[in-house]
Amino acid sequence: MNGFDERIHESLDILIEKETLLGDELKLLLKSFLEEKTAVGFSFGKLCFLHYEAFSDGINEDIYKVAAAIELLILSFDIIDDLQDKDSDYIWNHTPELSLNVALAMLIMASKAINETSFEHKSAAIRLLEKYALMSISGQQLDLLNICRDEESYVQMITQKSGSLTAMGCLIGEVLAKGEVTKEVEEYGKYIGIIQQIKNDIQSLKVWGPKNDLLNKRYSLPIIYLLSKKNDVSNSVASYYNDDIVTVLDNKATENELTNGGAIRYAITIKNIYKFKALNYLENVALNNLGREYLEKLLR
Length: 300
What we know:
Blueprint (H helix, E strand, L loop, with lengths): L3 H15 L5 H15 L4 H13 L7 H23 L10 H20 L6 H24 L5 H28 L4 H22 L16 H7 L4 H10 L9 H10 L2 H20 L6 H10 L2
């Protein structure tokens, strides 16, 4: 995987430059947004490449273009998510109206880029892109409505919102290689997204700032567990969530309850359940050692 991020970045630059229907201002904004996220790496594109490589006899160089297309879609979703949540300070939050146009352009470019490749099964890949993108949007809608307030509904929501996108990356790589997809890849693909979302939820609660889910009255597994405890801290948090204007959260007591009262341990336990489910499916898929190591890293 050495040099993979560079190849994806190069492919993204080419896609942007060759898109004649985009004006210069849109291209400049798109490139600046891309630079903002480059440091994070292109994990969704990697999932696509690794699964294509695992099931293909050789490497078609267009796979880098497909991986770049997937990253365009992911970045567009990230931008829209941040504009909706209003809890980050990325460059696109500074000009939301203009940024929305860039995100819309990237959605179209993602499908268009795959269609312009030489893969025999590119139509199947586009159908997968559309299917799992729509599922993710449905999950995002549920997240914004903030109505998933128990374990079952919350896990269903993050499966749609996050699991759909990681499954999409895996399955597009598989379908480009052999023209079909398997349940095993779809299942562990979804579980990767669930695990990453739970890890993000836990991380959100470690800093009392603008992205803290509890301060923003958002629901996540640790918070759902905390609210079920029915003690002084959970009652205070429940009052805060119910807009009781006289409730002032005791940050130290709440943080202590999250850390030592079992809420974080509960979320980690749920994460590990999906980790072991994913590993069981992964055992039946013939990935090379590099690909298997990368997936196992995402499952930790």
